[in-house]
Design goal:
Elements (H helix, E strand, L loop, with lengths): L8 E5 L4 H12 L3 E6 L2 H13 L3 E6 L5 H15 L4 E4 L14 H31 L4 E6 L12 H21 L4 E8 L2 E2 L9 H13 L3 E2 H12 L9 E4 L6
Parallel strand pairs: 1-2, 1-4, 2-3, 4-5, 5-6, 6-9, 7-8
Length: about 250
C-alpha cells in the first residue's frame, strides 16, 4: 500500500481529520514530506507526531482557508520549512445541509467560502511552487476533493452540492490551463465516507438520515480515499487521472 513518494513535498488541507489526515499519513509513509493544514492545532500536532514517530517528515501549519491572510502566511511557513510543494491536496470542507426555505445564509457563506473560495485561496498560494516543480521536470499535482454530490441529487443538500459541482467544474477547467504546463489536476468525488464531516449538521432530522445511511451500507473509509490519492499522484508524469468517482459498492 506504500507508494514511492520520497522526492515529493505535499500540502494537505483538512489534515486535522478524515480524508486529509489519512492522506497525510499515507503520503508520508510513502516518503513525502507533508505540510498539514487545518484550523485545530492540537489535532494537527497529533497527526504530525504520528508521522514523525514513524520516521516521516511532517509540519503542522494551523490555517483557516476562509482567511486570505492566514493562507498566505501558511504558504510562507511551508516554503520556509520545505521549499516549494509539488503536491497540493484540497480536502478542507464543510457540509451543512438544511431546507432551502430556512434561508441559512450563515451556512451558505461558510460552505462557499470553505469548499470553493477556500480551495481557490490555497491554489493561488501554492500554484507558483507547482508550476516551478513542473517546469523543472518534476511531477506536480493538484488534487481537489469534491463529492458525488456534484452529480447526484440529494434534497436539503442543494448548497453543499452546488459548492461541490463548482469545485468539480473548477478542477476540469483549471486542467485545461495547467495541463499544458505539466501540472496535473485531479478531481476526486467520494461517496459516503466515514469521517467527522456529518458531525457539524445542526438539523436533527438530517443528522438521523445521515446516520441511517451509515447503517444501511458499509461506507468508504478515509483510508480508501487516501489510497486513491496515493495511486493518482504516483502515476508516471504524463498520466493524469482527471476525475475519479469512488463509491461504496451499494451506493446508487
Ligand atoms: P472531516 O470533517 O473529517 O474533514 C474536514 C477537514 O477540513 C477537517 O480536518 C477540518 O479541520 C478542515 N476544515 C474545515 N474548515 C476549515 C477551514 N475553514 N480552514 C481549514 N481547514 C478546515 O471530513 P472529510 O474527511 O469527510 O472531508 C474531506 C473532504 O471530503 C471535504 O471537502 C468533504 O466535503 C469531502 N467529502 C466527504 C464525504 C464524506 O462522506 N465524508 C463524501 C464526499 C466528499 P479543522 O476543523 O481543524 O479546520
Amino acid at each position: 500500500n506504500n507508494y514511492e513518494l520520497h522526492d515529493r513535498t505535499a500540502v494537505i488541507t483538512g489534515a486535522a481529520s478524515g480524508m486529509g489526515e489519512a492522506t497525510a499519513l499515507l503520503l508520508a509513509a510513502g516518503g513525502a514530506r507533508v505540510a498539514l493544514l487545518a484550523r485545530r492545532r492540537d489535532r494537527l500536532d497529533e497527526v504530525a507526531a504520528k508521522i514523525t514517530a514513524g520516521g516521516g517528515s511532517a509540519l503542522a501549519v494551523p490555517v483557516d482557508v476562509t482567511d486570505t491572510v492566514s493562507v498566505a502566511a501558511a504558504a510562507a511557513t511551508v516554503e520556509a520549512a520545505y521549499g516549494r510543494a509539488d503536491l497540493v491536496v484540497n480536502a478542507a470542507g464543510v457540509m451543512l445541509p438544511n431546507p432551502i426555505g430556512d434561508g441559512r445564509e450563515d451556512e451558505w457563506n461558510r460552505m462557499i467560502d470553505t469548499n470553493l473560495t477556500g480551495a481557490l485561496r490555497v491554489i493561488r498560494a501554492f500554484l507558483p511552487g507547482l508550476r516551478a516543480a513542473a517546469a523543472a521536470g518534476g511531477t506536480a499535482d493538484l488534487v481537489n476533493i469534491s463529492s458525488i454530490g456534484a452529480h447526484a441529487l440529494f434534497p436539503q443538500y442543494a448548497v453543499y452540492s452546488a459548492t461541490k459541482a463548482a469545485l468539480t467544474h473548477l478542477s476540469a477547467s483549471l486542467r485545461t490551463e495547467l495541463g499544458a504546463e505539466a501540472v496535473r489536476v485531479t478531481n476526486i468525488e467520494p461517496g459516503l465516507t466515514d469521517t467527522e464531516l456529518g458531525g457539524h449538521v445542526d438539523n436533527t432530522e438530517l443528522s438521523a438520515q445521515l446516520g441511517a445511511m451509515f447503517q444501511a451500507m458499509p461506507a468508504l473509509s478515509a483510508g480508501d480515499i487516501a489510497d486513491l490519492i496515493g495511486y493518482v499522484v504516483s502515476r508516471p508524469r504524463h498520466v493524469n487521472l482527471r476525475q475519479v468517482i469512488a463509491l461504496p459498492t451499494p451506493q446508487a
